[in-house]
Design goal:
8-stranded antiparallel β-sheet, single chain, 8 helices, FIST_C, alpha+beta
Amino acid sequence: MKIVQAKKNNGSSFKFTTKKVALNNPLVLVFGNRYMLEDVNLYTEIKQMFPNGNIVFGSTSGEILGDSVTDNSIVLTAIEFEKSSYIVKSKNVKEFNNNELDLGSQLISEFPKKDLKHIYVVSEGSTVNGSALIAGIEKEKHISIGLSGGLCGDDDRFERTLTAYNESPKEGEIVAIGFYGKTLEITSANYGGWTGFGPERIITKSKGNILYELDGKPALDLYKKYLGEKANELPKSALLYPLSVKTDEDAEPIVRTILNIDETANTMILAGDVPEGSIVQLMMSTVDDIAEGANKAAIYASRNRKNKPELTLLVSCIGRKLVMDQRTEEEVEEVLDVIGSQSKIIGYYSYGEMAPFEGDNACKLHNQTMTLTLISE
């Protein structure tokens, strides 16, 4: 595997952070600030750098390259696979009338199944129901095929997110990368580090990812009551107090971030499904807990691997970044301590993360977690 990495700050050109070498048919991952991705010349600029590359874009709430976390930048990693291969497909939610379940099913059906090891998703993040998207993919793929990825971000603005495959970044795109190869080893895992507090409540009315009522009362009113003065900063302040959602007593709780609120309907729109009858509780975290969570995620992703990773894809949550603030890089350093310096790292801060729970093959949508996808040939 040959890997070339570069970074672009606002107002400057790309600067290579690794030795620049010629690559054959590289997969080019480009994660960056949404305003910078809106530059009409960006796609042409990258295409000139990698004329035979397949370019995947995703907007972020912060960029990760190596052991550093930056804002208002673009990070780029180009990968030439020497023993493996890849295929990229993309769909737009508008083509499916925002039916993410059908989109996911159609997307996975276009990948040849022979030697398919893993699907990595870079998805629109501001409007998509990530749970439904994953359910559509999981419905059609074999259990042995891995699935991970993330929902793109837009800092803490929640205005619009951009993605694309071999064209200028735009809204509504969902890009999937299929990795093939008999020697290819890909593992993924996630972990949070958040703790529940306050009373548990029952979801008495919801539809998909829209939450209407808790214990028969308007959910948004209750949530605002807990937030106090911070309710005036919604939806940004919700990133600091996500919801733990437990579908039944034996199920692993899933963390859900509030993407937006509807004052008129008195509802909350979350990144994934919140089924009726689920038990809900507010959550909070500390810097040390989040850093420890990143360490555990790296341990889980590394467990039972035969080879050390050559490439590490990180997707962490914007909520974690807001809590850690000036110490954000500590969670990336915790990951490095586990996976080793031999692996090249690229990633971004997101509106949602896709990965299986430890010991499970089925992918789930998470919020407020650190998610790793480790790749070696």
